[in-house]
Amino acid sequence: MKLVFVLFDSLNRHALSPYNSSAIPTPAFERLAKKSVTFNNHYVGSMPCMPARRDIMTGRLNFLHRAWGPLEPFDNAFPEILRRKNVYTHLITDHYHYFEDGGTGFHGRYNSWEFIRGQEKDKWRGIVSPDIERLKKEYHPLVFDGRTDMNANLPYVLSREVIKQEEDFPLVKCFNSAFDFLKANASADNWMLQLECFDPHEPFFSPEKYKDRAASDYEGPVLDWLPYGRADLSGPESRELRENYTALVKMCDDYLGRLLDYFDENNLWEDTALIVSTDHGLLLGEHEYWGKNRPPFYDEVSHIPLFVHDPRAQQYAGQRREALTQTTDIMPTILDLFDADIPTEVQGHSLIPLLHKDIALRDACIYGQFGGAINVTDGRYTYFRYQTDSSVTLYNYTLMPMHMRTFFEPIELREATLREPFNFTMELPVLKVPVLVQAKANMLSRYPLLEADTVLYDLADDPEQKKALHDADTETRMAALMVAEMQAHDAPPEAFRRMGLGENH
Length: 505
What we know:
Elements: E1 2-8, H1 27-35, E2 37-43, E3 46-47, H2 49-58, H3 78-84, E4 88-93, E5 112-115, H4 132-138, H5 154-160, H6 170-184, E6 191-197, H7 235-265, E7 272-278, E8 283-284, E9 290-291, H8 299-302, E10 303-304, E11 306-309, E12 320-326, H9 330-337, H10 352-356, E13 365-369, E14 374-377, E15 381-385, E16 395-398, H11 410-413, E17 417-419, E18 430-434, H12 443-446, E19 455-458, H13 472-488, H14 493-498
Parallel strand pairs: 1-6, 1-7, 2-12, 3-13, 4-5, 4-6
Antiparallel strand pairs: 2-10, 2-11, 7-11, 8-9, 13-14, 14-15, 15-19, 16-18, 17-18
Helix pairs in contact: 1-7, 6-7
């Protein structure tokens, strides 16, 4: 078996024409749908970027136990499992978060990897004294406001200065590296290529040819970075951001099409599996919000695309499946493709049986972000439940005390205790580290939630989630499904208490 796994970032399901006839024209995704099984009810798990990747790599949720962080010593990662079966794994990525403190351990699980530089805040260019005043004039304040701290956007505007031609763009370099790998290993078997592209995540920067200038009447400085939350944007600013996202989706579609051409020209459909998905979506003004994390996890963020081609099940190409699936299913699916054993702690399900028949895998799935709402769907309803007791202390459970870009601070670690193992930590006790408001890297303080209203939606009658449903019986049933999923993932006691879901779980 051979596998190409393509993972985009922030690829909105409703922006793709196979899912939405009024969406952006995406002919390559339409071609992919004809060659694959398309999953209609695929959802996120842990949010955002690296928590999602830990779900994908381990087959279980992590947002109930810790915030953004590294792979843990007790995590069974699929590349390492495949390596033990003599399956070669290669990672090509421009997702720079793998190479920060909070991405420790991920890329090292692959046999080999390539890191393409220059995306988003990748600290790539060493400019000691950048012309801050010039840059402030050339970029909208949402893109660059003059800040130079470690979380500022300065690295992006410095990288943008040298990305001039199409071949300079990280996405193009990622796909070209993938073609190099495929050519170099044309006669080999038992390998997996993970091709991972940060696009169409913000900043929405693409070659000019993908942009429809007539779709935007904006005339100000460069505006390709969206706010997170509510924003007082003018009409031209909103249209510019949406058009820049559209252009980037078109670019993703174009290069996916080139990969499909390679499959056609080299007859890879006969012996090579292909999985294409994303980690999450984002809001582009829907529900009066932009971005992700801070607003509720509406379907624009949580309901994501998934396409799976298995050369052994080509007779089902072009079909769709309604079964409820989520990102944790990617890991067991990959292991199943290579006939590898799936670890007992994995909560995801292999999707290979679904390629043959649309069968139910689960009653519900939960998804969310550490410290935010816990959300549940059964495919018909979505239920966002926020905390009812703000006095409950949250804890990070970890053996790798790192935040996104820093180590845990001494004030956090001084309060740490050792906690008995969870059912997925290989009998290892873990650090129980309290979440402190005064900690500089506390993302809950830096990015406070914008709403905290528990709410139920009926996707059948209200697919755009515009009108809350008041149905006590359905809410009780959805809460019970949430509890069952939390129990299956051995959620800590405080996760239940803060949500008003009982004491003794």
